[in-house]
Amino acid sequence: MNRTKLLCFSLFFWWLILMLPAATAKAEGIRINSVSLVAVGENYEISVDSEISLNPTLEQALEKGIVLYFVFKFSLVDVRWYWLDEEIVRGKYRVGLRYYALTRQYHLNHGSFSQSFNTLNEALQVMGRLHDFTLTVKSELKRDIDYIASLRIWLDLTRMPKPFQVEALGSSRWDLSSDKLEWRMKLPTPEQPFQMKGQ
């Protein structure tokens, strides 16, 4: 191997080493792919398609029997120039992810359901998809005005055991959250649901 080839090989090798942490960082986190909002009678339902990936620290916590709770939070705010902004619609959905070493299965738990999976990837795929979740209407809605909507998904550290909360404080290894998605919209109608791609 001549000097030129050796130099090219060395440069390529170091480039791969430098790119590896960046590729790993991109694989971890929460990404919102799409959001839809539909009117069903007097209520509104939201569906979210997202991708959730865990880093090695969180996977190890699962294997130790720690339940990881994830929160989906949607809100619709009436922005008023003459008074304080008012949250008029809210949706907060919490789901727990747990690993049982005895059966080697992952479980998703919510108040209304429990589901088991053979692999972590299968559990994360299902957890990242929220379908037809009914929102809470807190105030009178008007169809002819623009509202500010926001959506965020995150790992809820407050539901973890206290020793892990202390360890997680200020540590990026435990900080798992999507970017806050925010947009302006009018209320959907049964004939015209709202749909939007994530960022």
Q: How is this structure best described in words?
A:
There is one protein chain. Mean pLDDT is 83; it is low at 4-27. With 199 residues, the chain is of the alpha+beta class. Helix content is 24%, strand content 43%. The strands form two sheets. Strands 3, 4, 5, 6, 8, 9 and 10 form a seven-stranded antiparallel β-sheet that branches. It has helices spanning 3-27, 56-63, 120-127, 162-168, and strands spanning 29-40, 43-53, 68-78, 86-100, 105-110, 113-117, 129-134, 136-137, 147-155, 181-185, 194-197.
Secondary-structure blueprint of this entry?
Elements: H1 3-27, E1 29-40, E2 43-53, H2 56-63, E3 68-78, E4 86-100, E5 105-110, E6 113-117, H3 120-127, E7 129-134, E8 136-137, E9 147-155, H4 162-168, E10 181-185, E11 194-197
Antiparallel strand pairs: 1-2, 1-11, 2-7, 3-4, 3-9, 4-5, 4-8, 5-6, 9-10
Short summary of the structure?
With 199 residues, the protein is an alpha+beta fold.
Features of the shown structure:
199 residues; alpha+beta; seven-stranded antiparallel β-sheet; four-stranded antiparallel β-sheet; 4 helices; 11 strands; elongated
